[in-house]
Input
Amino acid sequence: NLAERGHDVHIFSAFNRSGRNLTIHKIRTVSSPSFLSNIIFAANTRSELKKGSFDCVLSFERTFFQDIYRAGDGCHREWLDKRKSVDSFFKKISFTVNPHHLLLLYLEKECFSNSGTIIANSMMVKKDILRHYPMHDNKIRVIYNGVDLQKFQPADTDIKADIKNDLGITADKVILFVGSDFKRKGVPTLLKAFSMVERKDIQLLIAGKEAKDRYLSMAKKLGINKKVIFRGPEREIRRLYCISDVFVLPTIYDPFSNAALEAMASGIPVITTAYNGASELIENGVHGFVIDDPSNANAFAEKISSALLHAEDMGRQARLKAQEYPIDDAVDKIIRIISGSGR
Output
Protein backbone atom coordinates (compact mmCIF):
# COMPACT_ATOMS: atom_id res chain seq x y z
CA ASN A 1 0.00 0.00 0.00
CA LEU A 2 2.74 2.49 0.92
CA ALA A 3 4.80 1.70 -2.18
CA GLU A 4 1.69 1.91 -4.37
CA ARG A 5 1.05 5.36 -2.95
CA GLY A 6 4.45 6.58 -4.09
CA HIS A 7 6.44 6.16 -0.87
CA ASP A 8 10.03 4.89 -0.86
CA VAL A 9 9.69 1.67 1.15
CA HIS A 10 12.65 -0.26 2.58
CA ILE A 11 12.25 -3.74 4.09
CA PHE A 12 14.79 -4.97 6.65
CA SER A 13 14.49 -8.74 7.06
CA ALA A 14 16.49 -11.82 7.99
CA PHE A 15 14.80 -13.62 5.09
CA ASN A 16 14.87 -13.14 1.35
CA ARG A 17 12.03 -10.89 0.28
CA SER A 18 10.81 -9.49 -3.00
CA GLY A 19 8.21 -7.04 -4.17
CA ARG A 20 7.57 -4.29 -6.66
CA ASN A 21 8.99 -0.88 -5.79
CA LEU A 22 10.58 -2.19 -2.59
CA THR A 23 14.20 -1.93 -1.44
CA ILE A 24 15.16 -5.08 0.44
CA HIS A 25 17.91 -5.11 3.09
CA LYS A 26 18.96 -8.64 4.09
CA ILE A 27 19.96 -8.59 7.77
CA ARG A 28 22.60 -11.04 8.94
CA THR A 29 21.64 -13.19 11.92
CA VAL A 30 21.84 -16.81 13.08
CA SER A 31 19.10 -19.44 13.00
CA SER A 32 20.00 -20.92 16.39
CA PRO A 33 20.10 -20.65 19.28
CA SER A 34 16.90 -18.59 19.15
CA PHE A 35 17.95 -16.14 21.87
CA LEU A 36 21.03 -15.15 19.84
CA SER A 37 18.95 -14.88 16.68
CA ASN A 38 16.67 -12.26 18.24
CA ILE A 39 19.38 -10.07 19.76
CA ILE A 40 21.69 -10.25 16.71
CA PHE A 41 18.84 -9.31 14.38
CA ALA A 42 17.91 -6.35 16.59
CA ALA A 43 21.51 -5.12 16.82
CA ASN A 44 22.29 -5.55 13.11
CA THR A 45 19.02 -3.90 12.09
CA ARG A 46 19.90 -0.86 14.20
CA SER A 47 23.33 -0.65 12.56
CA GLU A 48 21.86 -0.82 9.06
CA LEU A 49 19.14 1.72 9.82
CA LYS A 50 21.70 4.24 11.09
CA LYS A 51 23.45 4.12 7.72
CA GLY A 52 20.41 5.61 6.00
CA SER A 53 17.96 8.44 6.44
CA PHE A 54 14.34 7.46 6.95
CA ASP A 55 11.29 9.57 7.71
CA CYS A 56 9.64 6.80 9.73
CA VAL A 57 10.68 3.35 10.93
CA LEU A 58 7.93 0.82 11.62
CA SER A 59 8.94 -2.45 13.29
CA PHE A 60 6.99 -5.69 13.58
CA GLU A 61 9.73 -7.22 15.75
CA ARG A 62 11.24 -6.31 19.11
CA THR A 63 14.08 -4.08 17.95
CA PHE A 64 16.09 -1.09 19.21
CA PHE A 65 15.55 1.62 16.61
CA GLN A 66 12.01 2.42 15.50
CA ASP A 67 9.40 5.18 15.61
CA ILE A 68 6.46 2.78 15.68
CA TYR A 69 6.33 -0.76 17.04
CA ARG A 70 3.39 -3.02 16.26
CA ALA A 71 3.14 -5.44 19.18
CA GLY A 72 1.55 -8.24 17.15
CA ASP A 73 2.98 -10.88 19.50
CA GLY A 74 1.50 -9.15 22.54
CA CYS A 75 3.40 -8.79 25.79
CA HIS A 76 5.96 -11.53 26.48
CA ARG A 77 6.03 -10.84 30.22
CA GLU A 78 2.26 -11.35 30.36
CA TRP A 79 2.57 -14.56 28.32
CA LEU A 80 5.08 -15.94 30.84
CA ASP A 81 2.64 -15.13 33.64
CA LYS A 82 -0.15 -16.95 31.80
CA ARG A 83 2.09 -19.98 31.20
CA LYS A 84 2.43 -20.47 34.92
CA SER A 85 -1.15 -21.75 34.96
CA VAL A 86 -0.30 -24.73 32.75
CA ASP A 87 3.42 -25.45 33.24
CA SER A 88 5.12 -27.54 35.88
CA PHE A 89 6.95 -26.07 38.88
CA PHE A 90 10.37 -26.73 37.36
CA LYS A 91 9.30 -25.21 34.06
CA LYS A 92 8.19 -22.06 35.85
CA ILE A 93 11.56 -21.84 37.59
CA SER A 94 13.34 -22.23 34.27
CA PHE A 95 11.77 -18.99 32.98
CA THR A 96 13.95 -17.03 35.40
CA VAL A 97 17.22 -18.41 33.96
CA ASN A 98 16.33 -19.32 30.37
CA PRO A 99 18.43 -16.99 28.13
CA HIS A 100 15.73 -16.98 25.45
CA HIS A 101 13.14 -15.47 27.79
CA LEU A 102 15.62 -13.16 29.51
CA LEU A 103 16.74 -11.65 26.21
CA LEU A 104 13.18 -11.36 24.92
CA LEU A 105 12.19 -9.50 28.07
CA TYR A 106 15.20 -7.21 27.64
CA LEU A 107 14.32 -6.55 24.00
CA GLU A 108 10.69 -6.01 24.91
CA LYS A 109 11.55 -3.43 27.56
CA GLU A 110 13.94 -1.59 25.24
CA CYS A 111 11.47 -1.69 22.36
CA PHE A 112 8.58 -0.31 24.40
CA SER A 113 10.83 2.38 25.85
CA ASN A 114 12.38 3.47 22.54
CA SER A 115 9.21 3.54 20.43
CA GLY A 116 7.37 6.80 19.98
CA THR A 117 4.14 4.94 19.29
CA ILE A 118 3.10 1.37 20.06
CA ILE A 119 0.32 -0.31 18.10
CA ALA A 120 -1.54 -3.00 20.05
CA ASN A 121 -3.97 -5.31 18.27
CA SER A 122 -6.41 -5.44 21.19
CA MET A 123 -7.32 -3.56 24.34
CA MET A 124 -6.18 -6.63 26.26
CA VAL A 125 -2.64 -6.23 24.92
CA LYS A 126 -2.66 -2.50 25.65
CA LYS A 127 -3.65 -3.17 29.26
CA ASP A 128 -1.03 -5.92 29.58
CA ILE A 129 1.72 -3.59 28.36
CA LEU A 130 0.64 -0.78 30.69
CA ARG A 131 0.51 -3.17 33.65
CA HIS A 132 4.05 -4.46 33.12
CA TYR A 133 5.69 -1.39 31.58
CA PRO A 134 4.22 1.85 32.96
CA MET A 135 4.00 4.57 30.31
CA HIS A 136 1.57 7.21 29.08
CA ASP A 137 -1.72 5.67 27.99
CA ASN A 138 -1.77 7.69 24.76
CA LYS A 139 1.53 6.15 23.61
CA ILE A 140 -0.36 2.94 22.77
CA ARG A 141 -2.88 2.91 19.91
CA VAL A 142 -5.24 -0.03 19.43
CA ILE A 143 -5.85 -1.26 15.88
CA TYR A 144 -7.65 -4.58 15.63
CA ASN A 145 -6.45 -7.07 13.03
CA GLY A 146 -8.38 -7.06 9.79
CA VAL A 147 -9.64 -9.90 7.61
CA ASP A 148 -9.92 -10.50 3.87
CA LEU A 149 -13.70 -10.52 3.50
CA GLN A 150 -13.54 -11.84 -0.07
CA LYS A 151 -11.31 -14.76 0.81
CA PHE A 152 -13.23 -15.69 3.96
CA GLN A 153 -16.99 -15.75 3.55
CA PRO A 154 -19.88 -18.15 4.18
CA ALA A 155 -20.22 -21.07 1.78
CA ASP A 156 -23.50 -22.14 0.25
CA THR A 157 -24.99 -25.57 0.94
CA ASP A 158 -23.76 -27.22 -2.28
CA ILE A 159 -20.15 -26.08 -1.80
CA LYS A 160 -20.24 -27.25 1.82
CA ALA A 161 -21.53 -30.68 0.78
CA ASP A 162 -18.89 -31.04 -1.96
CA ILE A 163 -16.02 -30.16 0.39
CA LYS A 164 -17.34 -32.52 3.08
CA ASN A 165 -17.51 -35.32 0.55
CA ASP A 166 -14.01 -34.53 -0.73
CA LEU A 167 -12.55 -34.54 2.80
CA GLY A 168 -14.46 -37.61 3.92
CA ILE A 169 -16.40 -35.78 6.62
CA THR A 170 -19.56 -37.72 7.41
CA ALA A 171 -20.88 -35.94 10.50
CA ASP A 172 -23.79 -33.53 10.28
CA LYS A 173 -22.08 -30.97 12.55
CA VAL A 174 -18.40 -30.01 12.58
CA ILE A 175 -16.43 -28.32 15.35
CA LEU A 176 -13.21 -26.65 14.18
CA PHE A 177 -9.94 -25.73 15.89
CA VAL A 178 -7.11 -23.98 14.03
CA GLY A 179 -3.73 -23.30 15.65
CA SER A 180 -0.13 -24.47 15.69
CA ASP A 181 0.64 -24.24 19.42
CA PHE A 182 -1.69 -26.93 20.78
CA LYS A 183 -0.76 -26.39 24.41
CA ARG A 184 -1.07 -22.59 24.43
CA LYS A 185 -4.25 -22.61 22.38
CA GLY A 186 -5.97 -25.15 24.59
CA VAL A 187 -6.28 -28.43 22.70
CA PRO A 188 -6.31 -30.49 25.95
CA THR A 189 -9.29 -28.47 27.22
CA LEU A 190 -11.02 -28.76 23.85
CA LEU A 191 -10.64 -32.56 23.77
CA LYS A 192 -12.11 -32.84 27.26
CA ALA A 193 -14.97 -30.50 26.35
CA PHE A 194 -15.73 -32.35 23.12
CA SER A 195 -15.97 -35.65 25.00
CA MET A 196 -18.70 -34.10 27.18
CA VAL A 197 -20.91 -32.91 24.31
CA GLU A 198 -23.87 -35.28 24.22
CA ARG A 199 -24.41 -35.48 20.47
CA LYS A 200 -23.62 -38.32 18.10
CA ASP A 201 -23.74 -36.33 14.86
CA ILE A 202 -20.55 -34.30 15.38
CA GLN A 203 -16.89 -34.44 14.50
CA LEU A 204 -13.97 -32.34 15.70
CA LEU A 205 -11.39 -31.09 13.19
CA ILE A 206 -8.04 -29.99 14.59
CA ALA A 207 -5.75 -28.27 12.08
CA GLY A 208 -2.47 -26.40 12.28
CA LYS A 209 0.29 -28.93 12.85
CA GLU A 210 0.94 -32.62 13.26
CA ALA A 211 -0.46 -33.95 16.53
CA LYS A 212 1.99 -35.34 19.06
CA ASP A 213 1.34 -38.78 20.51
CA ARG A 214 0.06 -37.33 23.78
CA TYR A 215 -2.88 -35.69 22.01
CA LEU A 216 -3.70 -38.84 20.05
CA SER A 217 -3.52 -40.84 23.29
CA MET A 218 -5.70 -38.33 25.10
CA ALA A 219 -8.40 -38.54 22.42
CA LYS A 220 -8.32 -42.34 22.63
CA LYS A 221 -8.48 -42.31 26.43
CA LEU A 222 -11.49 -39.99 26.31
CA GLY A 223 -13.20 -42.33 23.86
CA ILE A 224 -13.44 -39.76 21.06
CA ASN A 225 -10.58 -40.83 18.78
CA LYS A 226 -13.00 -41.95 16.05
CA LYS A 227 -14.73 -38.56 16.10
CA VAL A 228 -11.59 -36.39 16.16
CA ILE A 229 -9.61 -35.72 12.99
CA PHE A 230 -6.10 -34.31 13.38
CA ARG A 231 -5.45 -32.85 9.93
CA GLY A 232 -1.97 -31.45 10.52
CA PRO A 233 -0.78 -28.36 8.58
CA GLU A 234 -3.55 -27.12 6.31
CA ARG A 235 -2.83 -25.24 3.07
CA GLU A 236 -6.48 -24.65 2.15
CA ILE A 237 -7.82 -23.51 5.51
CA ARG A 238 -10.81 -21.85 3.84
CA ARG A 239 -12.20 -25.29 3.03
CA LEU A 240 -12.34 -26.16 6.72
CA TYR A 241 -14.12 -22.92 7.59
CA CYS A 242 -16.63 -23.66 4.82
CA ILE A 243 -17.73 -26.98 6.34
CA SER A 244 -17.62 -26.02 10.04
CA ASP A 245 -20.52 -25.08 12.28
CA VAL A 246 -18.66 -23.81 15.37
CA PHE A 247 -15.09 -22.59 15.87
CA VAL A 248 -13.51 -23.20 19.30
CA LEU A 249 -10.24 -21.75 20.64
CA PRO A 250 -9.65 -22.30 24.40
CA THR A 251 -6.42 -20.28 24.32
CA ILE A 252 -4.56 -19.24 27.46
CA TYR A 253 -2.99 -16.27 25.66
CA ASP A 254 -3.58 -14.88 22.19
CA PRO A 255 -2.99 -11.16 21.48
CA PHE A 256 -5.58 -11.37 18.69
CA SER A 257 -6.40 -14.65 16.96
CA ASN A 258 -6.61 -14.15 13.19
CA ALA A 259 -8.24 -17.58 12.95
CA ALA A 260 -11.10 -16.43 15.19
CA LEU A 261 -11.79 -13.43 12.95
CA GLU A 262 -11.48 -15.56 9.81
CA ALA A 263 -14.04 -17.96 11.28
CA MET A 264 -16.42 -15.09 12.01
CA ALA A 265 -15.99 -13.78 8.46
CA SER A 266 -16.81 -17.28 7.25
CA GLY A 267 -20.11 -17.15 9.11
CA ILE A 268 -19.14 -19.35 12.04
CA PRO A 269 -19.87 -18.59 15.71
CA VAL A 270 -16.69 -18.45 17.79
CA ILE A 271 -16.17 -19.79 21.30
CA THR A 272 -12.96 -18.57 22.88
CA THR A 273 -11.52 -17.17 26.10
CA ALA A 274 -11.18 -13.73 27.61
CA TYR A 275 -7.42 -14.14 27.08
CA ASN A 276 -7.87 -13.82 23.32
CA GLY A 277 -7.84 -10.21 22.11
CA ALA A 278 -10.34 -11.15 19.40
CA SER A 279 -12.87 -11.88 22.17
CA GLU A 280 -13.40 -8.11 22.36
CA LEU A 281 -15.38 -8.40 19.12
CA ILE A 282 -17.66 -11.14 20.45
CA GLU A 283 -20.91 -10.47 22.28
CA ASN A 284 -21.94 -13.48 24.34
CA GLY A 285 -24.83 -15.35 22.78
CA VAL A 286 -24.73 -13.19 19.64
CA HIS A 287 -21.49 -13.90 17.77
CA GLY A 288 -20.40 -16.80 19.96
CA PHE A 289 -19.26 -17.06 23.57
CA VAL A 290 -16.36 -15.80 25.69
CA ILE A 291 -15.27 -17.99 28.61
CA ASP A 292 -13.25 -16.56 31.50
CA ASP A 293 -11.44 -19.75 32.53
CA PRO A 294 -9.44 -21.36 29.67
CA SER A 295 -9.28 -24.67 31.58
CA ASN A 296 -13.03 -24.98 32.23
CA ALA A 297 -13.91 -27.89 29.93
CA ASN A 298 -17.46 -28.05 31.32
CA ALA A 299 -18.11 -24.45 30.29
CA PHE A 300 -16.77 -25.09 26.79
CA ALA A 301 -18.90 -28.21 26.42
CA GLU A 302 -21.99 -26.29 27.46
CA LYS A 303 -21.31 -23.43 25.04
CA ILE A 304 -20.50 -25.78 22.17
CA SER A 305 -23.88 -27.45 22.66
CA SER A 306 -25.61 -24.08 22.81
CA ALA A 307 -23.81 -22.72 19.74
CA LEU A 308 -24.73 -25.83 17.71
CA LEU A 309 -28.40 -25.18 18.43
CA HIS A 310 -28.14 -21.58 17.18
CA ALA A 311 -25.25 -21.86 14.74
CA GLU A 312 -27.06 -20.40 11.74
CA ASP A 313 -28.27 -17.23 13.48
CA MET A 314 -25.04 -16.72 15.44
CA GLY A 315 -22.96 -17.35 12.34
CA ARG A 316 -24.91 -14.71 10.44
CA GLN A 317 -24.26 -12.20 13.23
CA ALA A 318 -20.59 -13.20 13.35
CA ARG A 319 -20.23 -12.44 9.64
CA LEU A 320 -21.86 -9.04 10.08
CA LYS A 321 -19.46 -8.25 12.92
CA ALA A 322 -16.42 -9.34 10.90
CA GLN A 323 -17.50 -7.03 8.08
CA GLU A 324 -16.66 -4.12 10.38
CA TYR A 325 -12.98 -5.12 10.25
CA PRO A 326 -11.80 -5.41 6.63
CA ILE A 327 -8.04 -5.79 6.22
CA ASP A 328 -7.79 -2.60 4.14
CA ASP A 329 -9.20 -0.54 7.02
CA ALA A 330 -6.56 -1.90 9.41
CA VAL A 331 -3.82 -1.06 6.91
CA ASP A 332 -5.19 2.47 6.39
CA LYS A 333 -5.21 3.10 10.14
CA ILE A 334 -1.55 2.06 10.39
CA ILE A 335 -0.67 4.29 7.43
CA ARG A 336 -2.36 7.25 9.12
CA ILE A 337 -0.21 6.67 12.21
CA ILE A 338 2.89 6.51 10.01
CA SER A 339 1.92 9.78 8.37
CA GLY A 340 1.77 11.46 11.76
CA SER A 341 5.07 10.02 13.02
CA GLY A 342 8.62 10.30 11.86
CA ARG A 343 12.06 11.47 12.73
About this structure: The chain has a mean pLDDT of 94. The CA atoms of residues 169 and 203 lie 8 Å apart. The chain has 13 helices and twelve strands.
